[in-house]
Amino acid sequence: MCRPTYYAIAYEINPWMRLRRPASPRRALRQWEALYRFLTARLKIQVRLLAPARGLPDLTFTANAGLITDRTLIRSNFRYPQRQREEPTIERAFRRWGFRIAHLPAAFRFEGEGDALWLGDTLVLGFRFRSDAPAHESLARLLKREVLPVELKDDRFYHLDTCFCPLPGFAALWYPGAFDRYGRRVIEQVATETIPVSRTDALKFCCNAIVAGREIVLHRGISSSLRRRLERRGLAVHELDLSEFLKAGGSAKCLALRLPSRYTAPRA
Amino acid sequence: MASEVVQVSGHIIDSLILPKILDEIMDRRGTFEIVELSVGKRKADPSTARLKISASSPRSLRQILQRIARLGAVPVMPTDVRLVPAPKDGVFPASFYATTNLPTFARYLGTWRPVQRIEMDCGIVVDARTRRALCMPMARVARGDLVVCSPEGVKVAPLERARKREAFQFMTSAVSSEKPKAQLIHDIARTMRVLRRQGRSVLVVGGPAIIHTGGGPFLEQLIKHGLVQVLFAGNGLATHDIESSLFGTSLGVSLERGLPTKDGHDHHLRAINAIRACGGIRQAVRRGLLTRGVMHACVTQDVPFVLSGSIRDDGPLPDVMTDVLQAQDAMRRELDGVGLALMIASTLHAIATGNLLPATVKTVCVDINPAVVTKLSDRGTFQGVGIVSDAASFLRELCVALKLPAR
Predict the structure, then answer these.
(1) Domain A25-263 class?
(2) Is residue B92 a contact partner of residue B162, using CB atoms and an 8 Å limit?
(3) A185 — contact with chain B (CB < 8 Å)?
(4) Among B15, B19, B44, whose Cβ lies nearest the Cβ of A149?
(5) Can you give the pTM of this predicted structure?
(6) Stretch A213-242: mean pLDDT, rounded?
(7) Residue B121 — φ and ψ, nearest 5°?
(8) Using CB atoms within 10 A of its CB, is residue B4 exposed (0-12), middle (13-18) or buried (19+)?
(9) Which residue of B has its CA nearest to A124?
(10) In angstroms, what separates the C-alpha of B20 from chain A's closest C-alpha?
(11) Same-domain pairing of B60 and B124
């Protein structure tokens, strides 16, 4: 994760960001600290911290840094120049932590775990707004796994992780309205069970959730029916206030990148 | 029609990327042909598809290419043709590209150039000065001509499937005598009228059976009414036509009574001899010796005819070309603008003409023997429509369908 020290709405690169609707730095920091504490203290998850950098307000959304496979970071090729500036910082940090860095062909955009999520051993890749479909071939070659690109059609759900969340047992929480009809069919075929969410829940970024074992952490305010459905699946639902990050089009999942366990041990 | 070959690879089947690309093409009224599809054997193996996309105009093709590029389908970078100079007159380089009769394009200096006068079983020569690609018969290549020697850089446009049912459908069913012919003959008549309005020509390739069966007068009618613009035949058709004009017989059989005439067996030789004495068919018409018949109509109507000889010819008539290469060239010269070829009761000349015709020329083969029609398509003239019929009956029906006044 990355502390939102320099987090701000500094530009508009998705429909959620409005320069006229700035984020409060103090509240954002408080919300982030609450999430961090919850993950580390309550869920006992080990978290490694990426040092925040001035001028990189979105570095806090570490899910977009890349995709980790084993000891390698497949680094993102950000769509927008505003975020392309994060690339060297990310690369330096991961190298220092002992990761190998893999690059996709520069012609293809790819925004890491923001658009690439594992469902079992199949990687689902969202494309159109931030990542490019042809990137899937290089990813498949690097990962030696099946990579299925699915097209997103609603720009409010510009990343796959804003409308799709894999759950234990090959199930997935998703907002079907964010996918085109081909994408919907692909996901229905790969997931053993799909839990569709309402538009209202989707707009509260309920799919942008951190799932750890049977725990699911998401922004507060989801409908009671969704909560019931999740709990019926044996998931413990934890709602936290992340409203300041929603202003930038992100929520819990965007604030964390999954690392293999041996790399997460925090250094003093 | 504009077309381009694109390639897409990856996990394009399970992700429905391939069906999506195909849908995108069809939604924009393009058509596609899957040139190659290799499917990964295991789940993680990539699949590759190579598609040939065609659209009605370069603009709509560009739009389709833009749409599918974001799905990863990108044009396969085409290369120029490889050119090798011909080592000798009449000899292609060993690896020369052999043509088909389909519309063909050669990529030279980055541009697709249509191959002119395409015909099957030839080579392609590129003229470096005019930058034009020309279909070249083996015997006519000159030493040093730049000959296309690679399938890369050459593309062939398949014939389009007809949108609605019509007589000249691509790949019609097998030839059979058990088929109704009236509708087919009406379609041919309509095509002849249309071609005439468009200023394109109708070619008749005829055998002597036209005259033997009494079909000569009908063919004469067609020529006189300006419905035939070119005639290809051998010594036989012309000889028996002239015999029938001079003696009223064909191979000694009276065309009026249908019975052999006394001493009629040498009529055709006397006919040939008479024309040889005049110096040729045109001269015989001019002198008033030849006053009716198919050849007479050709001369008076100014319809060009090419008579090519064979080894068993009597005479032959002075107009018959006995050098086959010269005859081929003469036939090639007359093929410009031909839109329909009617091959009636002729095997040798039908196949020879079929070899010279581009596949875009509508071809009808009429013969009493179904094997002839089959043979023509087996030799590569697959666009042919076959009619199993007696020559005279066919021509009579055709004249009726064209509403030509009775003689």
Answers:
(1) alpha beta
(2) no
(3) yes
(4) B15
(5) 0.58
(6) 95
(7) 60, 35
(8) buried
(9) B15
(10) 7
(11) no
pLDDT of residue A268: 34
Of B19, B46, B72, the CB nearest to A133: B72
Q: Rounded to an integer, what distance in angstroms lies between the CA atom of residue B273 and that of residue B288?
A: 16
Render pLDDT for B203-262 as a digit per residue (tens, 0 to 9).
Answer: 999 999 999 999 999 999 999 999 999 999 999 999 999 999 999 999 888 888 888 888
Alpha carbon separation from B303 to A94, B228, B331, B337, B391 (Å, rounded): 85, 8, 13, 14, 21
Shortest Cα distance from B32 to chain A (angstroms)? Answer: 20
Q: Which two tokens stand for residue B75?
A: 């044009």
Alpha carbons B107 and B126: distance in angstroms, whole number = 10
CATH number of domain containing B150 = 2.40.420.10
First-to-last alpha carbon distance for chain A, in angstroms, is 16
Interval B261-276: pLDDT, tens: 888 889 999 999 999 9
Domain that holds residue B293: 182-401
Structure tokens at A6: 């320099």
Q: State both tokens at B102.
A: 């389909």
Pick from A144, A149, A182: CB nearest B44: A144
Q: Nearest CA of chain B to the CA of A220: how many Å? A: 33
Would you say residue B306 lies in a domain? yes
Question: Residues B123, B68: one domain?
Answer: no
Residue B174 lies in a domain: no
Catalytic-residue membership of A159: yes
- Say if residue B101 is in the same domain as residue B232: no
Alpha-carbon span B277 to B250, nearest angstrom: 20
* The pLDDT of residue A79: 94
Question: How much is the ipTM here?
Answer: 0.85
Percent of chain A past pLDDT 90, that is, above it, reads: 93
CA–CA gap between residue B313 and residue B230 (Å, rounded): 22
Q: Do A186 and B70 touch (CB under 8 A)?
A: no
Rounded to the nearest 5 percent, the helix, strand and coil shares of chain B are: 35, 25, 40
Overall residue count recorded for chain A in this entry: 268
Do the strands B104-108 and B154-156 form a parallel or antiparallel pair, or are they unpaired?
antiparallel
Check A134 against B17: CB less than 8 A apart. Answer: no
Please report residues of B whose CB lies closer than 8 A to that of A137: 9-11, 46, 72
Q: Give the per-residue pLDDT at B251.
A: 87
Full DSSP string of B44-100: TS-EEEEEEEEESSHHHHHHHHHHHHTTT-EE----PPPEEE-SBTTB--TTPPPP-
